Amino acid sequence: MISSDASHPINGAPRGLSILGATGSIGTQTLDIVRLFPDRLRVHALTAHANADLLVAQALEFRPNCVVLGDETARKTVEEALAGTGIRVLMGSEGLCEASTLPEVDTVVAAVVGFAGLEPVLAAIRAGKRIALANKETLVVAGALVNQLLHTHNATLIPVDSEHSAIFQCLVGETAHSVRRLILTASGGPFRTRPKEDFARITLAEALQHPNWSMGAKITVDSATMMNKGLEVIEARWLFDLGADQIDVLVHPQSIIHSMVEFTDGSTKAQLGVPDMKVPIQYALSYPQRWPAPHERIDWTTLRALDFEMPDVEKFPSLQLAYAVLRKGGTAPAVLNAANEQAVALFLNEQLRFVEIPRMIEAALDALPVTEATYDALVQADAAARRLVLEHARAVVH
Ligand code: NAD
Ligand code: MG
After folding, report:
1. Per residue in 92-137, pLDDT tens?
2. CB distance 20 to ligand 1 below 6 Å
3. Does CATH number 3.40.30.10 belong to domain 15-160?
4. Assigned CATH topology for domain 329-389
């Protein structure tokens, strides 16, 4: 039997939320869910990197205890706009960590993009919070450390990423030893059918056109290189405590099956739905309950086919790189993640070609030593990989 309402807000009080990365794709959709359930969810903190106007509008609507801003230049605008409201304006990573640990916050929605999301998640874990985790980079970089701290501090991670939410839902009521393997589905991105010979001509605009999902720029490029699926394999390894050989990737262009679990007795469970991140975001907030909501349903009268194919590792080498670092362990996944973040940032600035992204990552992995994954070593590996990609990119351009 699925569990009771035990972990639901005490005495029917709303669940207190801190939304890190509130102005992004996941953040704004989280606020859409809060609008649907004003009696069940209450926002206490909102954070943004630089989008002051949206942060102010969100703060005036949701009236949190505090907002946090990354970019110092927007500080004055936000402080003036919120003067007299009682809403505190905090800054930088210190502010993010405060937002993650406020006593009135029950659940931290971790929706900052990239390595910058790691520190506030670690702070939330140390404060024993429940974390609705969208920021997959946290687990890619520091999965072992995160799991160790979760255990020590009695904190909980609930996945927001649609594939991991699907697996999490398939595992309700199951025991770990009955799982044979996970099958992560992938849309294949915008270049699934494009011949490899044409990859050298891929433009930024093309890479930003995802066929099924509307997301932030970094993850959209990750989906186009299929590094997103590689990061998700690593994310799954730590979330579900399985080895790399128990996590497979299957291309499913319709993005209706969000992922599957194959059990030891030959049975397979899948979770299906239209591609809409609001569903897994809401589940991470309502778990173990399900709350009725007007999200779009699958129309079985028009759905004609669910197709599957194996990923093309020649066209998308990033996937193999992710499996390789998972097997290597230590700081190797942190190097992969940082090299990818830096290469994608350069591609988004049109300073690097699409095909150079996996080459940059491979070069960083070849050049940097793998050491034990302490927090300090992870921070150093992240910085070293970024520096190396910047150096290599300068060499490619000139
Ligand atoms: P986004 O770029 O739309 O939003 C990122 C948010 O983080 C913004 O609020 C931004 O202000 C903030 N931010 C950016 N850099 C920051 C920094 N250095 N310090 C503090 N805040 C910073 O990104 P997104 O698409 O919402 O993705 C967020 C995370 O969720 C990513 O890790 C992504 O992989 C994951 N995710 C996203 C989706 C999706 O559908 N968008 C799906 C699954 C997982
Ligand atoms: Mg995903």
Report:
1. 999 999 999 999 999 999 999 999 999 999 999 999 999 999 999 9
2. no
3. no
4. Rna Polymerase Sigma Factor; Chain: A (1.10.1740)
